[in-house]
Amino acid sequence: MRTSTAAVGSAMFFIVAPGTVVGLIPWLISHWEFHQPVPHWVIAQVIGALLICVGLVPAVSAFVEFVKAGGTPMPVAPPQRLVVSGFNRYIRNPMYFGLLLVIIGEALLFGSLGLLVYAVLVGAATLFGAWEGGLVGIDSEHKKLEKFHDDLVAGKYLILVYVRKHREQVVLKMMREKHPDADMVAVDSHFVNPFSTVRRVSETPTQGV
Fold first, then answer.
1. Residue in 31, 94, 92 with CA at minimum distance from that of residue 57
2. Alpha helix ranges (H) inside 89-178
3. Domain carrying residue 194
4. 198, 186 in Cβ contact below 8 A?
5. What is the pLDDT of residues 111-154, one digit of tens each?
6. Are 195 and 188 in contact (CB under 8 A)?
7. Is residue 80 part of a domain?
8. Are the CB atoms for 72 and 79 separated by under 8 Å?
9. Total domain count for the chain?
10. Which one, out of 96, 107, 174, 175, has a CA that is 20 to 30 A from the CA of 128?
């Protein structure tokens, strides 16, 4: 995907998704009306404004990194490489983290209990999703590797090699020279996800997997 296309797609997604989470829904809850529930709440409002600014940094930065990687945060238009730069080097989901800070900042800025409850719900949903996803991942066998289940149970090894298309023959030659006992049993032409369209090329591997 060209950088310009990725930028347009990411910008549209940013307006629709984060725009709804930290824009439309908070507006429906608070109408962006300022309240001071307790004396000297202005200090909390200053902190809230700072949190909004700080929270937007990782969120916007994450979108920029996706564009640099030739894609968008949308699953239908992923980047051409794994994004591990920017805040992604330190936080698994910088967009979620940043947007949660923005919502908390809005709750303080507008003095809205409803927004604070909304922030708690968003944070709980994010943590629950990560927790449940981890449990499912531990409990379930990877669907792309199911076809190799019997071989793995039999004690054979599955070696996954991710290589760019123009280097494929070089890797195959090296494997034949360095590891003649290994068999190539599956190929995958997908550029982003090594497991997306994996298919077997040998149903009865002899040595190794």
1. 94
2. 94-110, 113-139, 149-153, 168-178
3. 143-200
4. yes
5. 999 999 999 999 898 888 766 665 555 555 566 677 777 877 88
6. yes
7. yes
8. yes
9. 2
10. 107
